[in-house]
Amino acid sequence: MLDQEDINKFRNVSISPSHHIIDGNQCRSISGKTSDVLSPLNGKVLCSISSGDEKDVQLAVQTSRKSFTDRRWSGQAPNMRKKIMHKWADLIEAETLELCILGVRDNGTNISMAIKAEVGSAIATIRYYAEAIDKIYGQIAPNVEGSLGLIHKEPVGVVAVIVPWNFPLMIGAWKLGPAIAAGNSVILKPAESASLALLRISELALEAGLPPGVLNVVTGKGSIVGEALALSNDIDAIVFTGSGYVGRQLLQNSAKSNLKRCYLELGGKSPNIIFNDVKDIVEAAKISATGIFRNSGQVCIAGSRLLIQNDIYKDFMVEMARFSAKISPGDPLDLSSPSGAINNLNQLEQNLKFVDIAQKEGGNLYMGGRRVMQDTGGYFMEPTIITNVKISDIVAQKEVFGPVLAVSTFETEEEAVSLANSTDYGLAAGVWTSDLSRAHRMVRSIKSGLVHVNTYGGSDLTVPLGGMKQSGNGYDKSLHAFDKYLNLKSAWIQLD
User: What is the Cα–Cα distance from 118 to 367, expressed in whole angstroms?
Assistant: First the structure.
């Protein structure tokens, strides 16, 4: 367990410039260009990273293809690959303190969240998929006598992984774990504002024994590096978590090139529905507040739309405001801080703009709505609740990706379903009710990849995470994640 004294020793440690990792070596961009990383804690330059372009991507692709073709990784015995991945997790665990602090200074997540949801999650994920390596089998098809049908599972090949800035280690591990466990070679493109922790765990993968060239990392702008990855004719699949706009660009560029598989997790506008038969209003409000305001609302499954049945609205909002106020941001490197910073200034300004627009459209500013802790130079915003939100309002339709909650009311179960399904997204949802039959009806009726019942945000690695509608396709987490990284090959054998 981390303590505050240990954290304070590392909060101001200088960070060396970081570079790409290609073929097992750190290397500068071919162009020599770098970019500054600004810490969201104080707005100051934290370090610099190499700023890649098409030439760096080309080199990484060539290296990845070579490593996959010569089977330096996929050709190893499953038990050996398993041992290497477990050692990788062990090395990450040994650097928990350093990785947590590095991540907080880079992306703004509060340290308590980083311990569990970043480093802790990455360790658990890599171990989960390590254990699955020797447990993924092919199949024998039922055939007529004299024929044998075999179904083999083979790695896809070269996989590009593009990771967002909000939970880089957690989401990165969700993709790196199964992709590498399946025997693929991977090119990782971290967010330019949250690259440092992912670069470090990639170095640790090499230290654990992952062969050079199996995991390559190219840092830089998404509009340059991400586009080059999507346009490459020698990448077999691309997996991405981020905005719908970028997802569409990746999909288009994949189609323009070699029709590579393109798996997209594109966020959500998740409804959290409170029925009047909720067992415990206080508990529901407490968890609902955490469901939207943890990590300053920078969570893809955040319960950003609160739908409350009319007759409990006032009572629920009193408790909701009380618990929301307790999740106000503080020093992200203080263990007592319930929330951290917004990742970057542009995102903060967008969040504040959403609040302004919501009020112009008729919403009421129930609490919050301001930038806070400006004296730090960092990017902080208080928990914000907008009530009287109409389903047509922008704040009810667009993903804010910040600590902004849109509140609406409903009369009937049918109306709740209609409101829940009235956006283009379908990533997550929540339902609070004591009626078991109603719970099952809502799970079936809500168009969402994940539906929480009498909780919010508590699922683990055993269940998949993926969306419907414009929240994307494909699944992270669970054994279902392997589907993205394995090809099926059938063999039809005529027996003597």
Answer: 29
